[in-house]
Amino acid sequence: MKNSMSVVKPASHCFACKKKIIWRDNIPIISFLILRGECRNCKAKISWQYPMVEFLVGITWGLIGYLYYFNFFENFFIAITWSLIFSALWVIFIYDWKYMEIPMNLVWFSLVLIIAINFFTDKINLIDCSIFFESTIFINGLSGLVAFIFFFGLSFISNEEWMGYGDSFLALLIGLALGPVASFLAILVAFCVGSIFSITIVILGKADLKSQVPFGPFLIFGFMLMFFVKFLFPDLLNLFV
Fold it and tell me: DSSP string covering 160-203, please?
């Protein structure tokens, strides 16, 4: 975990000519297609990662909107809040993948929103949460703490060789958001997919056994997968209870 540059300031600009990108060139996907993947000012190539992330964020918002439409969410506030969290997580995913560093300002932002959701959920379900130890705040908070301690321990023991401290806070986020069962499965998915990926690139000669692979993207993938499984297929989680 390092001090990250801001993803908010300065405003969107071309990395080649440093000129600010005007609003009409910042329309997701459409601007990329109109400009044919080039900067309007200096004609430098624009990476495909930008429309790809915009597409993934759009799909995520659509799925959350689908859940909201069918009343899995209690109100509009929660749907919008989750959409903002997922948008931040996609940025973290790409940033960690490219630079082996987790932008912690986005992690703090997401954590605050998830805690707000937990408090709001308990307020809505006040009758069902008559005692503190049955509340979402307590159960998810305990899940996040256990996940955080596990990953922090791995980072500390290995001096960040096995895992970075930033991954500990992503694990905390997952526990706070999903609760005990879904967060355990999300982390299990992250380890399985991460291992398969690492073994594959070693076999293909793209890396060796000493190469470092960012684990944050796999944690985020596991979280997103189990988030939608939890709401769309809740009976699957009951198999692990």
Answer: TSS--HHHHHHHHHHHHHH-HHHHHHHHHHHHHHHHHHHHHHHH
Domain check: are 33 and 91 in the same one?
no
**Closest of 144, 122, 124 to residue 133, by C-alpha:** 122
Full residue range of the structural domain in which residue 221 is found = 51-238
Per-residue pLDDT of 80-101, as tens digits, reads 899 999 999 999 999 999 889 9
Q: CA angle, corner 197, sides to 195 and 202, nearest 5?
A: 95
Indicate if 66 and 132 belong to the same structural domain: yes
Of the given ranges (29-38, 128-137, 176-185), which has the lowest mean pLDDT? Answer: 128-137
Instruction: Quickly count: other Cβ atoms within 10 Å of residue 187's Cβ.
Output: 23
pLDDT per residue as tens digits for the range 122-153: 765 555 556 777 788 889 999 999 999 999 99
Domain co-membership, 5 together with 114:
no
What does the block give as tokens for 128?
A: 């069902």
**Secondary structure, 3-state, 49-103:** HHHHHHHHHHHHHHHHHHHHHCCCCCCHHHHHHHHHHHHHHHHHHHHHHHHCCCC
Same domain, 112 and 212: yes
Q: Hey, CA dihedral for 133, 118, 8, 97, is it positive or negative?
A: positive
Same domain, 216 and 109: yes
Q: How many CB atoms lie within 10 A of CB 67?
A: 17
**Can you tell me the mean pLDDT for 42-65?**
83
